[in-house]
Design brief:
- There is one protein chain.
- The chain contains eleven helices and four strands, in the order ααββαααβαβααααα.
- By secondary structure, the protein is mostly helical.
- The strands form two sheets. Strands 1-2 form a two-stranded antiparallel ribbon. Strands 3-4 form a two-stranded parallel sheet.
């Protein structure tokens, strides 16, 4: 009503919750074809867990690399060391894999979605906000993720609300980059466990 009063030219459309639910259910069904582990986080968000093995299998590539979950806490740099031993760049295949999922979703449902890939849920969620509303952000290198960290405000991090944002800003911490570079001793000393866990996931 406030919008109509201040801007009479604005057209306000009614919500269609049943249609929204239908799209969400269809999205879940599509993603379930690519992984047995699809976690519904909210009506329009979910996490898809897959391994390197899943990606290689999808492209019919035989490999002897150790199968680690994309949610593994092992750093991407460490992973890249043994991935170079293989005949295929698995990290590039991951981007291709996710892009194919994204294209399939948008083709079948007719609307855009943003996808983010990371070694933890917090990183994946942050990556999904990059280049919205039709973005695709895959963590391919430490350099790339640092560029994302430098451009993202701390409030963009999943799990950090308004009060926590104010608390961090009072300490002159405005970006994700500044947050992850807080010394570990200070993190343990000044922050509660949920915020410490977020810090660890972003590291």
């Amino acid at each position: 009503y406030k919008i109509r009063k201040e801007m009479p030219e604005v057209v306000v459309l009614q919500s269609h919750f049943e249609l929204y639910e239908k799209f969400c259910a269809n999205l879940y069904n599509i993603l379930s074809e690519y992984s047995d582990e699809v976690e519904v986080y909210s009506i329009d968000e979910c996490f898809l867990n897959f391994t390197y093995y899943d990606v290689l299998k999808y492209f019919n590539i035989q490999s002897s690399i150790e199968c680690n979950s994309i949610e593994s806490e092992e750093s991407y740099d460490r992973q890249e060391e043994y991935l170079k031993i293989e005949n295929h760049n698995v990290l590039e295949l991951i981007e291709k894999y996710v892009r194919e999922i994204k294209n399939r979703v948008q083709k079948d449902l007719g609307i855009t979605y943003s996808f983010g890939v990371g070694s933890t849920k917090v990183i994946a969620k942050l990556a999904s906000t990059h280049n919205k509303p039709n973005g695709l952000c895959v963590r391919l290198s430490e350099q790339y993720i640092q560029e994302v960290y430098e451009t993202k405000k701390i409030a963009a991090v999943w799990g950090i609300g308004r009060k926590t944002t104010e608390k961090l800003m009072n300490r002159k911490i405005y970006t994700v980059h500044e947050f992850v570079n807080i010394p570990e001793n200070d993190v343990i000393r000044y922050f509660d466990k949920p915020l410490i866990n977020i810090w660890l996931e972003l590291k």
